[in-house]
Amino acid sequence: MKKNRGSHSFGKGLVCGALLCVMVMVLGGCGASSLLVRLGLAGLSSGSSESQLEDKMEELQSYIDNYYLFDYDEEDVEDSIYKGMMDGLGDPYTCYYTAEEYASFMESSSGSYSGIGATLQQDYSTGIITVVNTFSGSPAEAAGLLPDDILYMVEGEEVTGIDLNLVVVDLKGEEGTDVNISIVRGSEVIELTITRASIEVPTVEYELLEDGIGYIAITEFDDVTDEQFASALEDLESQGMESLIIDLRDNGGGLVDVTCTILDSLLPEGLIVYTEDKYGNREEEYSDAENYFDGEMVVLVNGNTASASEIFAGAIQDYGVGTLIGTQTFGKGIVQSLIPLSDGSAIKITVSRYYTPSGNNIHEVGITPDIVLEADTQSGEDNQLQRAIEVLK
Fold first, then answer.
1. Is 309 annotated in the active site?
2. Radius of gyration of the chain, Cα coordinates, nearest whole angstrom
3. Per-residue pLDDT for 41 more than 70?
4. What is the DSSP string of 170-200?
5. Active-site residue flag, 307
């Protein structure tokens, strides 16, 4: 029996500087500010840690009230405290979203939004954000943005190390408005102004190759991807497809429930993936085999194949229903939940580890393809795709 599939998906917080001089006087008469009241810290009395937190916050607020030179927005300070709390966990996949950031994030995962039309990926070990590709006909393509460009600044602010979802929020905006970015290409820094437009996210592209070989590329797993994949598969089968190549190269992941829905149409009956939380509670996803694809399959992967894409590749490999070709995958074997809060904000927080059907957790390890083949970047030909065609022939 299938479990209900939830909405799981695979910033810099508060930065505090040291005072440059020692204040020897006692600050008095400030009391708890409106910010402390809003944070629920004023009047705390239960527990030593809560009392220490209140005292520390009041001390900081006193220095701000008495000495800070500039005006500031209390909401910005409050948001930074929440961001800092999540950032302090030391997990690059856990973060806080303001109400505006959360609304924008949900819009971009729905399949359409107003923005520049590019797929970005972040190396969580370095914080560097790179361009994976640009959508055909998009503002990003028209502006000359290229794969492997490093996104350095957005509107004059450096974005290295900032949570990618928050950077995407800054890149999006009202249709017809401009966003100024700086990219690094080789040793050159290039300034670009891109005019935002309405974007329909093409998460699935497909075509029928020679000898009845179908080809489906999935760029990410969004809300619309399972429907797009089902339509592509149906169309290819109507054209006489006998075998299938699924391209997950540079697919950084997405929604687990969408991934499992697609796998349900490809796998025999059985376990797709399972997760375990900090208490050892286990949740399982199953395929019912009602729409089992019985043709030969190849899945293309590389070092940017991550998270939900690795769930996909791991299940295909464990069942032995397809051949993995390419290079070692990224190695993200943990799952995040997006949790809305009462004020319209939200947190994304790591809640569990996931395991392939055979019980492997690939976090910080990745998946080794059945055929390891580096991409040939010199010839201009896709040698990994050609090898996949040879295997299926």
1. no
2. 24
3. no
4. HH--STT-EEEEEEEETTEEEEEEEE-EEEE
5. yes
Rounded CA separation 115/384 (Å): 32
pLDDT digits (tens, 9 = 90+) for 47-77: 556 788 888 989 999 999 999 999 999 999 9
Place of tokens 């619309």: 224
Q: Please classify residue 280 by burial: count the beta carbons closer than 10 Å to its beta carbon, then call 0-12 exposed, 13-18 middle and 19+ buried.
A: exposed
Q: Which of 83, 172, 332, 348 is the catalytic position?
A: 332
Of 307, 309, 345, 352, catalytic: 307
Core vs surface per residue 203-226: b (16+ CB within 10 A) or e = bbebebbeeebbbbbbbbbbbbbb
- Is residue 323 exposed (0-12), middle (13-18) or buried (19+ Cβ within 10 Å)? buried
CA-closest candidate to residue 307, choices 257, 366, 263: 366
DSSP state of 288: -
Annotated active-site residue 332? The verdict is: yes
Element (H, E) at 392: helix 383-392
**pLDDT top residue among 207 and 109:** 207
The pLDDT, as a whole number, for residue 343 is 94
Residues constituting the chain:
393
- Choosing from 318, 345, 348, 352, which is the catalytic residue? 318
Instruction: Read off the tokens for 277.
Output: 């939380």
